[in-house]
Each structure stands twice: as structure tokens, then as C-alpha cells.
Amino acid sequence: MTSFGVLICGVQIRIYQMDLEYDGLYRMYLVADVVLPTQKSQFISLVTILEALYNVKDSVSKVLEVITSDTSPILSHSDYCRLPPPSPEFVQVTVVVSNEESFSI
User: Fold this and answer.
1) Sign of torsion, CA 48 50 52 58?
2) Rounded to whole angstroms, what are the CA distances from 102 to 7, 90, 91, 92, 93?
3) Does 43 have pLDDT greater than 70?
4) Rounded Cα gap, residues 2 and 71, in angstroms
5) Number of helices (H), then strands (E), in the chain
6) Coarse DSSP helix, strand, coil percentages of the chain, rounded to the nearest 5 percent
7) CB contact set of 33 (below 8 Å; sequence gap of 6+)
């Protein structure tokens, strides 16, 4: 499964993607780093900005397809998900007191 993060700082937009490839190994990498145009001469870069954002949109759409599908995908390394730990169980512990008596808690 994949997660996305968006960092907007002024006119700069950075989009990160993070996945869990193997148990305990999270990978985060930059998928888009764009600067919004602020002057007329910079609007030529708008095509590459939109292309980068559409690529991210396609990646998010693929993740949403997996989430909303009725069938669960076969887990591969790239689709690894960590299962939660089991609920704690009650145990009985015997405590020994210094005068050789014992009782249960």
C-alpha cells in the first residue's frame, strides 16, 4: 500500500510517496517537485507542472482502485501490509512473599 504527502511552501509544491515494501522497511521518495509560476515569463513551465500533478493523480487513482475493489489483492512485496498485534490476554501471576507465603493476583 502507498501513502502520499504534499508539502506546500510558498510557491513550491513537493509531493512524496511512501510505501511499506518489506516488514519494517518504509521507503519515502520525492515524486514531484514543482514551483508555481509567479510571472508571465514563467508560465511556459505550466505544462511540466500539470504533467507532474497528473502523474501523481494517476498514482493516487491506482491506490484508490485497490482500496475500493471487492476482491483483496494477492499480497506481494509491494503490497505488504503490517497486521496489528493481537490483543493482550490476562495471565495469572504467583507472587512469593519473603515469609514463604504465596498468593495469586
Assistant:
1) negative
2) 60, 19, 16, 13, 10
3) yes
4) 18
5) 1, 5
6) 30, 35, 35
7) 12, 13, 14, 15
105's grid cell: 493476583
Q: Which long-range contacts (CB under 8 A, 24 or more apart) does 37-44 make?
A: 37/11, 38/11
32 sits in which H/E element: strand 25-35
* Count of all residues that appear for the chain in the document: 105
pLDDT digit string, tens, across residues 79-105: 556 677 788 888 888 877 776 555 555
- Provide the residue ranges of all domains of the chain, joining segments of one domain with +: 2-79
